[in-house]
Amino acid sequence: MEGLILKKSTSLLFSGLLVSGMVLGATVTSTTVHADNTATTQATANVTNNVAYYDQDGNFILNKDEQGTEGSPITFAPDGYAIPTNNKAVFGGSAATVRVTVNKMISVKVNYVDQNGKLVNSEVVNGGVGNTAKLTDLPAGCNWVNDAEQTITLVQGKEYNVPVNKKVFNTVIFKTSDNTEVGRTEIFSDKVGDAYNLTSSQIPAGYKADTTSLTLQTDNNTQFVTVTKDADAATGTVTVNDQPAQLYTIYGNTITGRTLKANSPWKIFDTKVIKGKTYYKVATNEWVEASAVTVNNDTTNTVTPFTNTVKTGSTLSRLYNKEGKELSGRALGPNTSWKTANKMILNGKTYYQVATDEWVDASTVTVNGETPAEPSNNVVTINSQIASLYTKDGKVVTGRALRPGTQWKTANKMTLNGETYYQVATTEWVKASSLA
What we know:
InterPro entries: SlpA_C_lactobacillus
Helix content: under 10%
Pfam families: SlpA
Number of domains: 6
Protein name: S-layer protein C-terminal domain-containing protein
Strand order of the largest sheet: 31-30-34-33-32-29-35
Keywords: Signal
C-alpha cells in the first residue's frame, strides 16, 4: 500500500501523514477521450450563468450564479424547492441569464392497501408539488397490482391509497431443544399449502435446522423449527493482542500450557459470559478472554452479550435483522429508551439487540453511562508518540495511526468508558491522552 494517494477528505483533514505511509491529499487525473481511433482535445465549454429562481406562482425566490456545461440541465434548487420533473431549463452561453421555475417541496402520505382492503404499511414521500415520484418501498410479502400504481403525482394535502397484492404470510420461530428462541424469519407465498424451502441466510447464524422444508399455513400463522448449535460454524474472527493469550475451559478455568500466539488470527464459534467476563470459543472446549483479543471487522458477524439501556435521538432509529438488512416498517420512536441483550459487529458496524432479531444501529442511539458525541471544531496536535486510531466503539483500527507532531482538525468529541476521544476522520477517533 506504500505510496498510495488518497483523495482529500472534505472536512476533517487538517495536515499530517498517516504512519502506514499513505499520504492524504488531492489528486488530479488527466483524461483523454477517444472517438474511434482519434484523440479528442476539445472539451465541452464550462460556463457561468446567472440563474433567477421563481416559484409556480411567478414569485421571485433568489438569484444565484451556477456553473455547468452549455446545453446541460440546471439541477440545483433553493432550499425548500425542487426542480420540476419536466424541467427544460438548461445552461446558456457564457454569462447568460436563465429563468428557472421550481416547485415547493411537500410531504405526502402513501398507504399500501391489500386486496382485502386492509392497510399493510404506510410511508411518507417527499418531493416537489406537481412532480412525479416512483414508489420503491414495496411492503415485504407484497406485489404491485400493476406498474402504473408505482408512480404518483404529488399534490398538496392529498393522501394516496396504493393497491398491492399481499401474499400468504407465516412467521417462523427458531428454537433450541430447551425451548430457547434464537431467531425468527418471515416466509411468503401465493397461497396456503405452497411449499417453501428456508435459505441459509434465514436460519440463525451458528445453528443447523432440523428441517428446511415448510408448507405455508393460514395467513399470519406461526411455525416453529428446532435448531441445534453448529460446532463448525464460525461467527467471526479475532486477532490476539501483542501478548500471548491464555486459554480457558468452558468454566473459566486456566488450561495449563495452552496459549494463542501473539498477533495471530482465530475463528470464533461461540460467546459466553463466565463470572462476569466475556470469552470467545476458538477450539473444542478452549476459550480465550475477550480482553486478550481484538474483534476483526470482517464480513461475518460477532455477537457478544451486552446488557444495558440505549436511548434514541430526536429522530426515528431504523431496525435491522442479524444480517444487517433494514426491516420494513420497523423503527424505534424518538427519545425513547430500550433494554439491550447483545452487541453485534457486522461488516465493521455496531448494532445493539433490542428485540428478537431486531437490532438498532449504534450510531443512532446513546448507551446509558456513555457521553454522546458533541460537535468539536478544535485543531489538535499529536504528542511525541505515534497515536493509534480507534472506532467509535473504542476498538483499535489496525494499521492506521497518526504521526507525532502532526495537526488534525476534529469534527466531534466523545467520552467512552471514562476516556475522551476526538474524531479526525469519518470512522476514526484519537484519544485525548495522545495529544500534546
